[in-house]
Each structure stands twice: as C-alpha cells, then as structure tokens.
Design goal:
By secondary structure, this protein is α/β, with parallel strands linked by helices. Helices cover 37% and strands 21% of the residues. It is built from 17 helices and 17 strands. The strands form three sheets. The chain has a nine-stranded mixed β-sheet, sandwiched between helices. A six-stranded parallel β-sheet has the order 14-13-12-15-16-17, sandwiched between helices. Strands 8-9 form a two-stranded antiparallel sheet. It is elongated and about 70 Å long. It starts with a strand and ends with a helix. The structure holds adenosine-5'-diphosphate (ADP). It is an enzyme of class 2 (transferase).
C-alpha cells in the first residue's frame, strides 16, 4: 500500500508533543511491514535540521491557490532517520512557517489551512496518488473536505482518508476566511451543522469537525478515549458529531518506539538491564540519586515526568510530592510548565524543598534525564485529568517502573490495578489505579504501592516484572491501522 501521512509534526525533526512521536513511529512500523510511506510537513524555520539527511529540492514551482490567486511554494525532500519527508515552504509575505515556533500564532488557523491546501496541491501536481492519506489533528482537519469537495474532481477520486485525533481540546475554531482562502467557495453550504459549522459557536467553523464529517475513517489514540469522547465532556463538544459518524470512528492505542525506550538498549542509562537482570535496575537508581543529589537510603523513588498543566492533574502532582515524603519515599519530578502561574508555583516548591535530601524537582525539558528517571525510579505517578493515550505509563512499564495512574483515557487500556482489577488475571496486573481527583484517591493508590515496596519487596518486584512483559510497541497498532486502511480502500 502507498500511504501518505500529512501532519504538523514528526519526531524528532518537529516535535511539540506526542503527535510527533506517533507520526514517526507509525510510519516506521508501516514501512517495516512493507508499505510505502511518505510524510508531508511544513518547512518551519525552527525545526531540527540536524535530524534531516540529504535535504534536496523535490518540486520547486508549486503554485498553491489561495484567495483566488496563488502562493508560490517550494517542496524539499529529505530523510528523517530513514523516513522520507517532504517539507513545504511557501514564499509569501505571510511567512507562515518562519515564525520561530510551531504553534501559538494569532493566525494559526490560516497557517494550517494553507498547509492542508498546499499538501493536497503537491500530491496532485506531482502525480502522487496514495491509496491512503492519513492526516492528524485539527491542523489537517481541512484535508478531508478539500479532498472530497475539490481534489476528487481533479484526478484524485480514488484516494481515501484516515483522520486521527490526538487531542480534542484544540479543534481549530476558524472564520469563513479559511473557506474563501482554500477555495471552498459556497460559504452557506459549509456553514451547515452537518458540515463544518461549530456545534456551539454558530458563527464559527470547526476544522476538526470538518475532518470527522468527511474522512473515511476517524480514529483517536486509545479505545477508552474513543468512548469518552462520545459520552463525556472530553469530546469538547464533538460528542454528537462522533455519534453521527460512529460507524467510522474507533480508538487505536498508540505504540512506543522500543528501539529508543527500552532498558536493554538505552544508551542514556548507565546500566542496561532486562527482565532477567532486573537487579541491575538498582544501579540506575543509584546513578539517579547521585545525579540529583538524593541521599542513598532504603526508600522507593516515586517519579513524575510530563508537562505541568491542568490536563496532567497538577494539583495531584503537587500533593503526590508531599505524600510520598510523608510515607517514607523519595520523589523526583521532571516537568515543564508553559502557564506562568503553574511555573511560578513549581519554582516556589523547588526553592522550598531545595535542602530536602529526599526530593528533587527538575523544571524544564530534558530528554536524557527522563531516560535515567524511567530506569532509576520504582514508581511513576500519572494523575491526569484527561489523557487521550499517555506515553509515560507505557514507558514506565517497559522499564519496570510501576505506574500509579488515574483511570482515564488510554491509562485505562494500559494500567491494570494489582489489587482490584477484576477483568485481568492477577499475573497480568501491572500497576495501581485510582479514579477520583481528590487527594484521598491518589493517597490510597500510593499507599498501596509504597506499602508493597516496603513490606513485600518480592511481590513488588513481581509486579514490576509483570509490567515489563507487556508489548506496547508499534506492532499491534501498526496491524490495526493496516486493517483500517484496507477497510476504507475496499468499502468506499
Ligand atoms: P503529552 O503528549 O500529553 O505531553 P504523553 O504522555 O503522550 O503526554 O507524552 C509525553 C512524552 O514527553 C513522554 O515521552 C515523556 O517522557 C516526554 N516528556 C514530557 N515532559 C518531559 C520533560 N520535561 N522532559 C523530558 N521529557 C518529557
């Protein structure tokens, strides 16, 4: 099969969050399975050019229709750790992708509406006719409408689209400009509720909704999140639309890259280990303590790794620090906050706890340190308010670091409570789960985990080893996506 991924990120060259990892990881898995995959991305000025090999011109004179005129673009091609990527560079005074950032501009809607249009125009003009176009998140939500309302009539009638939603919170709420600019000219037609009109703001378009309405298959990043999006408020107003299109909507759990996240081969950790040499994990714990100046005592290390924002349940992260200290554990936090208030709060905590030899707060983004923490910690807390899939618990499991997670989103599909999960046999359980967002809930889960570590160390080790047994690589998701691609190729 010939598959083209169109996205605003692809790790490691363009990465702001989990989306980048998925685009890269899935593409690699599909190639391993023998499919041909190409990735189309914007050519941002601030992307990591050092991760691109052999960047060269692929299509120098691409004219992309825009507001009845056209913008001149150049398309470059290069390899990102083996994946073929095309980068679109528009030459106009809008400077869409030369802003020193990926997202966060006032005209983000127009920047990515342009990117969506340009990606399809590139496919059309360069005679690329993929079997499946796989696009991601609100940034590429206009691709399904554009394909089926315009490009289908210009020689792309056999192309099928799979649309994956990684985060319902950002939907691309836009004005009619996005229609006029991209050539979707009949405003009244697209402004209907069964098309792109936002379900709650009658004067706005919703680009993500457009993707849902027009795509041949819609997925989100875990089965439980697919359910939540339809039946709870995490669908952020799109639940009804998803109901209407339920026969095309499903959840596919993300995978993680086991060449990178794997204690057997991890080049960032001082001592590699496997299930058979699990005792070597202790050497990483020692190294972690040395690195972060924690004292070497007989206590478990509880960790938190992740963004510090409301999605991640920061009030519970804060509470977990003090509760762990209180219960005879050490705590390590690695997190970055974009919101000034949350940042100030954790800066304050860091100063307050500075002299405590049982805790270290590292504020900022540090990939290398994150590997050492996954390898050195005994437990990892994931108290998210909502979590479409969540990678940290899956990485933790691979490193034999027991997750203590809130039962939401993808966490429900990946973490199974040692004491209470009745759907999973005891020998398959791998962590601790709590449900409420109050302090008592997380306390009870942490209590059970820390208690087991202190009083039944053999049982705790058994639990960690059971977690390492799980396969959360791209193998299963890759297979599921191939099934979805096959389905849309043969049923539409
Ligand atoms: P989200 O995509 O919502 O941020 P995920 O759990 O899906 O959350 O993915 C988070 C990824 O980012 C994980 O690989 C985690 O290790 C990494 N990460 C998050 N914060 C940091 C940080 N401060 N330093 C290093 N890595 C981080």
């Amino acid at each position: 099969m010939y598959i083209v991924q169109i996205a605003s990120e692809c790790a490691p060259v363009i990465k702001a969050g989990g989306l980048g990892d998925v685009v890269y990881g899935l593409s690699r898995e599909l190639e391993t399975r023998g499919h041909c995959v190409e990735i189309i991305l914007p050519k941002y000025d601030c992307m990591r050019y050092d991760h691109i090999w052999g960047l060269h011109d692929a299509y120098l004179n691409l004219w992309v229709p825009w507001y009845g005129a056209a913008i001149h673009c150049s398309v470059y091609c290069g390899w990102v750790h083996g994946r073929v990527c095309f980068f679109i560079e528009p030459h106009s005074q809008d400077n869409f992708f030369n802003r020193g950032c990926y997202y966060g501009c006032d005209d983000d809607n127009m920047r990515f509406a342009f990117f969506s249009k340009a990606a399809l125009e590139f496919l059309l003009r360069s005679n690329k006719r993929p079997d499946v176009i796989h696009c991601h998140d609100w940034q590429t939500g206009l691709i399904p409408p554009l394909l089926f309302e315009i490009y289908k009539y210009h020689g792309m009638e056999y192309q099928r689209v799979c649309y994956t939603i990684h985060n319902f919170k950002h939907q691309g709420i836009a004005g009619a400009d996005a229609l006029r600019a991209t050539g979707l000219n009949q405003e009244a037609y697209y402004f209907q509720y069964d098309k792109l009109r936002d379900n709650f703001n009658p004067f706005a378009l919703n680009l993500m909704k457009g993707g849902i309405v027009y795509a041949n298959a819609i997925t989100t990043v875990s089965p439980n999140h697919a359910w939540e999006a339809r039946y709870t408020d995490v669908g952020c107003g799109l639940g009804h639309t998803l109901h209407l299109h339920q026969d095309r909507f499903s959840g596919v759990l993300n995978g993680i890259d086991y060449d990178f996240w794997n204690p057997e081969v991890d080049r960032y950790i001082p001592c590699k280990y496997t299930k058979e040499t699990f005792e070597d994990k202790a050497k990483n714990k020692k190294a972690l303590r040395e690195r972060l100046l924690l004292r070497d005592v007989d206590k478990p290390i509880v960790a938190y790794i992740g963004r510090l924002d409301n999605q991640k349940g920061v009030h519970l992260v804060h509470h977990a620090i003090y509760y762990a200290l209180d219960r005879g554990a050490q705590f390590v936090l690695l997190g970055s906050a974009t919101e000034p208030g949350i940042n100030a709060h954790f800066q304050h905590e860091k100063r307050f706890l500075n002299d405590n030899p049982d805790v270290h707060l590292e504020l900022g983004f540090n990939e290398e340190l994150s590997h050492l923490i996954y390898a050195g910690a005994d437990m990892i807390v994931v108290p998210s308010n909502y979590e479409p899939c969540g990678l940290t618990q899956m990485i933790g499991l691979k490193y034999g670091t027991v997750p203590i997670a809130r039962g939401v989103g993808g966490l429900v599909n990946t973490v199974f409570d040692r004491d209470y999960d009745e759907n999973v046999p005891p020998e398959k359980r791998n962590g601790y789960v709590f449900y409420d967002t109050d302090y008592l809930a997380i306390e009870s889960a942490m209590d059970r985990a820390i208690g087991l570590w202190h009083y039944y160390p053999d049982e705790f080790q058994k639990l960690a080893l059971q977690g390492m047994e799980y396969d959360y690589s791209w193998n299963n998701p890759g297979e599921e996506y191939v099934k979805i691609y096959d389905w849309i190729r043969h049923h539409w």
